[in-house]
Structure formats: C-alpha cells, structure tokens
Amino acid sequence: MVQQVLACKSAVKGWRWPRSEVGVLWLLTLLIGLLSIAPLSRLVWTAIAPEGVPDLARLMQVVGTPRVLRATGNTVIIALAATALAVVLGTLAAWLVALTTMRTKQAWVFAFILPLMIPPQVTALAWLQALSPSGLLITGLHALGISLDMQGHQPLYSMWGIILLLGLHNAPLVFLSVRAGLRRLPAELVEAARVTGASPLRVMLTVILPLARPAIFAGAALSFVAAAGNFGIQAMLGIPGRVPTLITLVYQQLNNSGPGALPDMAVLSILIAAITLGGLLLSGFLGGRHDVRVTGTPRRLQQPLNRWRLPVEIGVWAAMVLTLVMPLSALITTSLTRGFGQALTLQSLTLENYRNALFAYPAIRTAFFTSLGLTLLAVVILTVVALFMAFFLSWQRTRLVGLLHLSSELAYALPGIVTGIAAILFFLKPLPLINVSLYGTVWIILAAYLSNFLALVLRPTLAGFAQIERSLDEAAQLAGAGFLRRMRDILLPLAAPSAIAGAVLVFLTALNEIQVSILLVTSNTQTLGPMIVFLDEGGSSTLAAAVGCLMILIVLLFMLLATRLMRKLPEGVLPWQA
To answer: Phi and psi at residue 151, in whole multiples of 5°?
Structure first.
C-alpha cells in the first residue's frame, strides 16, 4: 500500500522533493564542491594554465625534464613491483584464512592487519633500526656466526628497500579484497574438482584463483594506488638513498622554493594522479576481461591441511615474527637507549626519550593534541555527512548525487599529497566575502581531511543503508514526519552501527596520517604524523623512536577497543575480523 501511494504521488505532474531534502542536498553539494571539486579543478587549471591562459608547451617542458622523467620511472617501477609482492603475500594469506583449517586465525589476522594501521613512516623507522649495525637482525645473525659486511651502507636506502617495505605494508589491502572474494565462492565447484581427483594445488590454480580474479585485481589496484602515493616510506628511504620519486620531488621542491613552485608542483601532482588512475583503470580492465560469475549458494569452504597444518602454522607465525615483531622490537629497543646504535643494557636503559616525548618537548605535545582535535572534528563532520549522503545515494539518486559520490571517491583514490597541493592552491588566497586565508592554519588541514576521508566512512554507511527496509521511511513520510525527523528517529539509529564502523576507520587513519598533512603543516600548526620525519631528519632518532612507539600504542589500544565493541558492529566492517 505504501509503495502504491508513493508511486501515485511520484506520477503526479509537478511533484517535487520536500524543501528539507532539497536544502540538505544543496548543503552537501556546497560542502563537497568547496572541499573536493573546486580544489581539484583549481589544481588541473593551474597545471594547464598557470598564467590564466593554457600553456601546454610549458607543461610538456616540466614533464620532460630529466629529473622528472627519472622520478616518474622510479614511481612506476616501485608501484608495480611493490604491488606484485603485495598480491602474492595478500592472496596467500587470504587463502589460508578463508579456505583452510589453519588455527588461531583471529589472532593472526589481527597481527597481519596491524602494519596497515601503523603509520608508514613509523614502519620505515622500525625497519631502519632493525637493520642497523646494532639492530636485532644483524645482532642475531652475528650470534649465529653469520657476518654481513654492509660497509656502513643501510640496505633499505635503495629502490629494493622501498619495494620491500611497500609490499609488506600493502599486503593487507590485497588480503582484505581477496578474502572477501573467496568467501563468496560456491563450495560445490571445489568439491566437484576434488571428486574428480584434482590435487589441492590443481584446485587452487584451475578453480579458486580464476574465480577470485576480480578480487585479486581489485586488491592489486588498491595496493598500486597506495604504493604510488605512500609518502612515509618513500621519503624515509628514498631521500637518503637518492631514489627520487614524484612524491618526494614535490615535497623537496616545495620546501626549497615555497609557494612559488606551486605551478610546477601542480603539474607533478597531475602526473601522480594520472599514474594512479591509470593503474586503477588497467586493473579494472584486467580483472573484468572474463566473466567469472557462478551460481550456487556461497557457504564456508574449508580445505584440510592435514599433515601440513602444523608446518604451515609455524611458518606463518615465523613470518609474522620476522616482519612485525622484529622491526617493532628494534624500534622499542632504540626508544629505550640514550643514543642511536647503542645496545640495550642495564647501563644504557633509559626512559628519558619517553619523558621528553610526553613532557619536555611542547611541539610534540601540541602536535598530538592538534591531530587529536582535527581527527575528532573530522570524524564527527564526516559521519553526519556520510549518513545524509547515504540516504540520497540509496533512495534518491540523481545525476547530482552521482557526481557528488564520484567526487568523494576520486578524492579518496588520489594520493594524499595531491589533495594537499590542491588545498594549498585553492585556499592560499583569501576566501571571498570573509577575506581570510586558510593557508598556514589548522583549518586547511581539516578541509583536506574532510575531502580525503569522506569515502572511507561513506562506504560502510552505504552498506548499512542497504540493510534498512525502505518501507519504514515511506510509512513515516505518509504519517507526516519531515525529512530531518525521519532521519533522527528512524534512519540514523538503524544506520548508526555502520557509520560508527566507518568513523573508527577514519579515526585510525587520520590520527597519524602523513600523506595529506606533510605539505600543509607549518611551525605553528604541527600534526603528529609528520613529526617522525622531522625528528629523524633532525638527527633525533631515539626521540623519533619513542614517538613512534607511542603512536603504535595509540593505534593498538583503539583497535583493541573496537574489537571489544565488535558484537555491536555489523559483521565484516572491521578489517581485522577473521
């Protein structure tokens, strides 16, 4: 009856949306237009026409310089190689967790996902200290009688060092995508292959992997974008190792030349965006070349490991110790010594670095509270925006709503440093009417956060709206309830768990992020993420290690808190759920 009434109502000529819905939609349009569409448009226009007139010759001249060509080649090679490593590791991990009888999956998945939540600059610092002459790995090898003559050279200061860390850091992205795809596989196909006598390896190569192709390429796309736009690892390893990439080139050039270099940096930002979007398109094309749709009811499939179960479990936990425990232990060890490179003994043990990080350095304390305040404010605003956006995307989708959705997804897909350059270009001049410039204030960082992280909270919120029966909203509308009242009393309580899950992800991502804010911070507006890079560049490695340990502790505590609340959240919204 409700559907019939609304159908008749929609058919009446001249029927329009209620004013309250139109007003909210225009507010969303204004917000997303100012935060995403306008800055990105300004970025493109500055790259093409820095003087107000299109100048393609100058654009080609900037792109064609030897330094830019070398940085572009390095960026593409690093992103492709790191993606290949991440795909192998992530797909193998997804198969073990989703389809085998491996034990202790929940704990292992939590440990496997943890590096994705740790800021990449902290990851790079931990590995650098683990592979230092006094690091745990080198010390352990010496204890076994194995001597590595590195001649004072840090092996991670190289292209292969960058690839290794980016591959390890992004493997969880592939894991999440492939695991979701494997869970949807009809068990009948695998069981039929087993009945015909196919070995587990043959089943894997001929049945499971072909059917998981779209999920694998989707994960590869995420890994490629993350690798190409990862500033923390590229800067910590590439700048000392003299391996220039487009990301580090933008950072160094802007630091050396200031706002005067913005037109050239806009060109490089467009180049970075073109590489990442090109990777997304190529991955989508390769993943969709063959139709792998199947019929059947997905049900949990468990491939027995039999006599290989214990060796596999020992192997995966040993790998976890090598790739997670060892670098983090080295970071903790460095944070507890008086000087970088010292062995941890009773004589060298000190908590001075933690005391300095918490109390003696006001800049670190200020950076933490600035990051916390900006993150909480961004979480609140984005959660509210995502709830209203999800309503329009789910039930009132129009071309305008589709454009807003595309803009939010594009802003999230682009590397954070591109968002930072776009924000500088758009907010550098005083805003109309109020004649105030946001450049050099915390508000430009907030604007960049809102632009970059909207899609992160919108996706789970959309999933929550997909589970709400629309007749509830339609019945309330027929009873005379206005749009805002329906949202407050009916839709928001039902969609709140999904929105909260997205808010948790935004909080964990934004609190320690560096990709967006590295170009926006000033001496008066520091945030926590870039602090590691600044301390390490300034020679305060032990203090940087202490700050990094505190950042990891914060992330770990919030992950554990979210895990405790898991029962109240929709299934699968937390990435570390097994």
So the answer is: 50, 40
Q: Which of 510, 68, 45, 47 is nearest to 247 (CA)?
A: 68
Mean pLDDT of the chain: 81
Give 96's Cβ-side CA count (13 Å radius): 25
pLDDT confidence of residue 162:
94
Q: Which of 324, 314, 316 is nearest to 168 (CA)?
A: 324
List alpha helices for 133-240, DSSP H: 136-143, 159-183, 187-195, 200-203, 209-211, 213-228, 231-233
At how many degrees (to 10) do helices 399-413 and 362-395 cross? 150
CA separation (Å) from 477 to 9, 23, 113, 171, 485? 12, 17, 43, 46, 10
CB 404 within 8 A of CB 454: no
pLDDT bucket at 289, cuts 50 / 70 / 90: low
The answer to whether the CB of 87 falls within 8 A of the CB of 223 is: yes
> How far is residue 561 CA from its own chain's centroid?
20
pLDDT tens, residue by residue, 437-479: 888 889 999 999 999 898 888 888 887 787 777 788 778 778 8
107-112-114-118 Cα dihedral, nearest 10 degrees: 160
- Helix, strand or coil for residue 279? helix
What is the helix, strand, coil percentage profile of the chain, to 5?
Answer: 75, 0, 25
Q: Higher pLDDT residue, 179 or 578?
A: 179
Residues with Cβ < 8 Å from 20, sequence gap 6 or more?
482, 483, 484
Give the number of other Cβ atoms within 10 Å of residue 29's Cβ.
Answer: 16
Cα separation, 107 vs 72, in Å, equals 39
Q: Report the 10 Å Cβ neighbour count for 477.
A: 19
* CB-CB contact of 503 with 381 (8 Å): no
The closest of 368, 426, 415 to 550, measured between CA atoms, is: 368
Contacts of 443 (CB under 8 A, 6+ apart): none
For residue 89, the model assigns a pLDDT of: 94
The per-residue pLDDT for 293 is 55
Residue 100: strand pairing partners? 303
Average pLDDT estimate for 233-260: 87
Average pLDDT over residues 64-88: 93
Angle at 383 (CA atoms; ends 403, 479), nearest 5 degrees:
85
**Segment 354-377 mean pLDDT:** 89
**Per-residue pLDDT, 433:** 66
Closest by CA to 394, choosing from 472, 340, 320, 325, is 472
